[in-house]
Design goal:
- By secondary structure, the chain is mainly α.
- It has one domain.
- Helix content is 72%, strand content 0%.
- Helix 1 packs antiparallel against helix 3.
- The longest helix has 31 residues.
- The relative contact order is 0.15.
Length: 81
């Protein structure tokens, strides 16, 4: 896990916007049933709860392991501690 993997985790969480857009289309364009809508919402809730939990776990890991350290801040660029 590094800060670039963390960045990908953040981008995965942004998918919620597209998922809500898709749900809106299901409701307005295709007249989905209440049961279908409820099932999709439950799935979105479970999926994003997991994605955000993973994001937070990885954030805490990077903080604890100094994973956000900028290697350009060191005088000897060939030596990274």
């Amino acid at each position: 896990m590094d800060r670039f993997d963390f960045e990908q985790d953040i981008f995965h969480c942004w998918h919620v916007v597209n998922d809500i857009k898709h749900l809106t289309e299901m409701i307005s364009d295709r007249g989905s049933s209440t049961d279908d809508i409820v099932n999709v919402l439950i799935g979105i809730r479970i999926l994003y709860n997991d994605r955000f939990q993973k994001l937070m776990d990885n954030f805490e890991y990077l903080i604890a392991s100094d994973g956000f350290r900028n290697t350009n801040d060191y005088e000897d660029k060939g030596k990274i501690e």
